[in-house]
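Quarterly update, task 2.4: pyridoxal-5'-phosphate-bound model.
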Amino acid sequence: MSIDFKALAKQYGTPLFVYDFDYMTKQYNELKDAFSGVKSLIAYAVKANSNLSVISHFGKLGSGADCVSIGEVQRALSAGIDNYKIIFSGVGKRDDEIKDALEANILMLNLESEAEMRHVESVAKREGKVARISIRVNPNVDPKTHPYISTGLHENKFGVEIDMAKRMYIYAKNSKWLDPVGIHFHIGSQLTELSPIKEAVEIIANLVRSLKAINIDIRFFDVGGGLGVVYDKESLINTYEYAETIKEATKDLDVTIVCEPGRFLTANGGWLITSVLYEKVNGDKRFVIVDAAMNDLIRPSLYKAYHKVELLDNENTKESLKADIVGPICESGDWLAKDLLLPPTKSGDLIVIHSAGAYGFTMASNYNTRGRAAEVACEGGKCRKIRDRENFEDQIRLEKAYL
Ligand SMILES: *Cc1c(COP(=O)(O)O)cnc(C)c1O
């Protein structure tokens, strides 16, 4: 669908996140269909975009949720995701988070260390509940992505080595309070090559075979998320080849394939709309200062990530010159695009930042006491607000009483 960004900016103000729910549906169905013929569960990685309406949208399509905090579990439940489709992952969980997850009776807790397993066991025992668990195995393969979003090497903090995983499974199998039902890996994000995934899937499938041989019956084979998207000119993993690779490697195992995409489902279904405030020139450097900033979209500052930037309806035919798009925050790292060719802009011109549907709003902060942006969802030709713009009162609510 073509979205009238200008009308939305006028109605809701800027900076503004706009999402295309039809695009998200298409991405979900493409992946779900790729897994046809086998038992599968798509568990949307809530951290990519955790707006309740976004989660609920995926829930209605049949999606589960991959959560990395109890807050995300609560979001998933509030958005109507079935408890038996919720996975609680993450390298560190507090005992009270474990307790709440057990009470919610979610599908499984995904464990990343022996120490964590002992905690889960003791909380389960105290609560008189059996904890369904999976173990995140670190297959030590190089995902060939940005080092900050690579997670599947031993040098990363995630998961446990194969030998440790085996010991943990045997321990869990013998515990009255633990039920080892799943296995999990997630080697990184923004993956654009299939070969590391194939390598990891085969390593983990072999581990499942050796576990089945000792009567540890793994039923959920969780391949994590990480499918890359186009920000610039990336070539992508073909979704069908991806699913086929996984099906092929697990065809002798009676397992449900769990897949946890975040970015793939939402990144290119979201835009950040911002208004030009003014331009300035320092020496020979041109800056276009806009009303969105690193607190709204931190990916450029944090990862030097590229986002396509488009100037809307600029009738200026003068020559385009290089400019940096920067926000008003007091940090030199506060930029959204660098060395972009742009014609002269004027105050109020609209700039659209593409691929902002994942790790955009969820990584936003109140730095510089800036309220977080409003969010709008478009579906079937109609757009509606799904989050109010944060105002000053919202920001000081938890401090006011102590003044
Ligand atoms: C972040 C994360 C995901 C989602 O990653 P994407 O790159 O957004 O697909 C999936 N699973 C786990 C465990 C994660 O931490």
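Highlight for this quarter: The chain has twelve helices and 17 strands.
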